[in-house]
């Protein structure tokens, strides 16, 4: 243990704080139980919620929602799902690839075997060439797990495909849950899930905070990037006014970011290298205040200093 | 993931709650920074603090305090430190044994080589045969890391030895810190530690809550034991009115407690088998409310049900 700028470096493992990509924290377990008990929503919120999620089904996770969407197409082993992502980086989350592999294979180029196009709107940055994709005349799934509150200027993201995937914990302080928005016909929703009411009440509740969530994340990203710039890094993304960050992604400047990942995770910070790029991401959610962001920035400063 | 009684079993690893033996939680980082900034204590508290801790030195951890106490005796490799514990269980925390091994060996029986007696007041239960120990006419160290607020009816625990060890995070919501109380002469305190002011302000602040901490822990232990009794377990300790539990220790009733440990730790709960005994311990600190205790009890209920 080291005491550095009034914070502990290398804490005991059972005294690690938690800073997740999700705004979820231990205290939210009880808060959410209360919200579910006393759920009250005004009509306006219900209207906005319905207009946003349309026809939809709840799942335990975004992964389960992906699985259900894929199952719609009766894919054969030799079929391919084409994955297109905002950054076109070679790395794609295993949350997506593992689900596809349960049905068929996946590729990064369109071939004769492509049966479905899976668009990942990454980290709150939208995939911006949907027009080309639509010309393929293939079924489209849009993955907005990391981009619930990101859109284009015409508000069309989430409407292009048969299905749109959302992840509840990525934006709301909830421990689990995925939403599958259904834009196509001949899909029948399973209404009997025991967690549906619980999740719907929470999503309805937190949906009222949308504006705050969006603004706070944008502000937090600015604050983090300003601090990281002082440490020699630069912002990786430029977000449009219609996009909301789900992480703080920064471009590296010669730092051993694989080692940085281990170091920060040892301090309870969910983060990672954006493999395939010389970039790294940190939490940026709405529950982070200046104290917590400084805490993370101080750790990075310490790491740089120690590894010079 | 499984949704059971409105809580998630097997959560994603970056959506794990934290229930430590320590009352420390992530939110305390900021709270403590504020307390250190605005520290104000009344004279009465300072008086009580001084009377409780006497002449003392701050350390990063209880382990460091143990090390410093041992270093006082110029122990030789062939010397032995006799470890006596409340339960006389064969298992002793490696926090103690590892520090002793830096100087000499340790034993559980008095021999001709015994140079120091190290008393561990375990889990808030005091070692109650100090009179016999004192007849050895050997230097005594009392380890109250888990027993800061436990005493005998004459209030003598912590006064028998040359040194008494306290662990700050075990009782206060602080991430780190140990206190070495010095009851002997010819020991000189190092006053230049950069974390001393920080820790002292926090200990002074939280010391004001002593009565609440003691009562809440006693109540929480009753609540937990009542819930565990319904699940077929029994209390392991009987605490006197002068003792404050640092964990909820229960006696097993045929459950696979090694597997229970893995299961509960997967859900963010610091806990363990009390190795050497058919017993198990859980958090019981003052920051746990009924919701959190029910959460832990529900998990144990689920585990028993699944492993029948």
From TrEMBL, chains A, B:
Keyword 4Fe-4S: no
Statement: the UniProt record of this protein carries the keyword Ribosomal protein: no
Organism superkingdom: Bacteria
Keywords of this entry: Pyridoxal phosphate
Family: Belongs to the DegT/DnrJ/EryC1 family.
Protein name, UniProt field: dTDP-4-amino-4,6-dideoxygalactose transaminase
